[in-house]
Amino acid sequence: METTPEQIPFLDLWEASDDDEGMSDERWKEACREVRDACEKFGCFVVRPYDGVPRDVVEGLFRSMKPLFDLPLETKKKNTNPKPYFGYAGDSQVVPLYESFGVENATDLDASETFTKLMWPQGNPQFCQSLNSTSRKLLELEMTIRKMVFDSFGIGNQFDSHVRNTNSTLRVMKYKASPTSETAIGLLAHTDKNILTILCEDEPGLQVQSKRGDWIYLSPPKGSFIVIVGESLKVWSNGRFHAAKHRVVMNDRERYSCGLFSIPNDGWIMEVPAEMADTQHPLLFKPFNFTEYISFFYSKVDKPKENTVEAFAGISVN
């Protein structure tokens, strides 16, 4: 039997505002339901452009990224971090089209300045300002969506505590064009391990896998934001949310993107809230240290069936 192609939801979260003070209570509750539904069914959705993140802010960062990736390799490799995938990534035979930098807490101006001076000792105020401004705006969006998630389950009173135990990393990414007339993999299929990911791109290329295994190509309007559920939020939801597997497929055009990743603080114990487990939803995950989970994942990175969050922290349910 022929099936209808699945479509990732496109949400207008700010379409029904109450004057200049944000959404009305009714519209807020409706938006919370939409976000929760998308997280449960797809683990991904697209937020259409809105004034909260001005388009020129993100486009300014995209323009500033081009000189960054043109720097000498020895300079780029100064972006180091003891945590896997938190610093510079590139020059890889596995994903030769992919290159990226990571900046922890780029919402803090000092962190943005430190990274900028590492790349340009003489300074680059325009890049620094673009990096910091974009990070701050994306974090505002991430926190709004995370608040919607908490409110959708009726536990909004736990949101502030959750936020205090998390931080963020901004990754700026470049994908080279496919070297042939055929499409090529820019980034291998994977799930994110963090809480939420907010992506923006100057060219399409992202594909998201549905629960039934179909790859869905995303081509959102310019200025949109792609929201992806990470494994940590799936655990928090006691398995209600789907951590979407995704990949990047390249054509004959190079692609720049940036992503804000909300991440549990080092040493914070991730656990399912008591309100998320009941007789209909038995507890699926035991409390765990996120940093230890990341170490576990990378220790078995070549064994995808053994490095899942279920293998690390799952509870068997009879």
Topology:
Layout: E1 10-11, H1 25-41, E2 44-47, H2 55-69, H3 73-76, E3 98-104, H4 109-119, H5 125-152, H6 159-164, E4 166-175, E5 184-190, E6 196-201, E7 206-209, E8 215-217, E9 225-229, H7 231-236, E10 246-250, E11 255-264, E12 269-270, E13 288-289, H8 290-299, H9 309-313
Parallel strand pairs: 1-2
Antiparallel strand pairs: 2-9, 3-4, 4-11, 5-10, 6-9, 6-11, 7-8, 7-10, 12-13
Helical stretch tally: 9
Distance between the termini: 33 Å
Largest sheet, spatial ordering of strands: 1-2-9-6-11-4-3
Oligomer: single chain
> What's the total number of strands?
13
Helical coverage, percent range? 25-40%
Poorly predicted ranges: 16-20
The sequence of SSEs as H and E is EHEHHEHHHEEEEEEHEEEEHH
Mean pLDDT: 92
Strand-residue proportion: 15-25%
Alpha-beta content class: alpha+beta
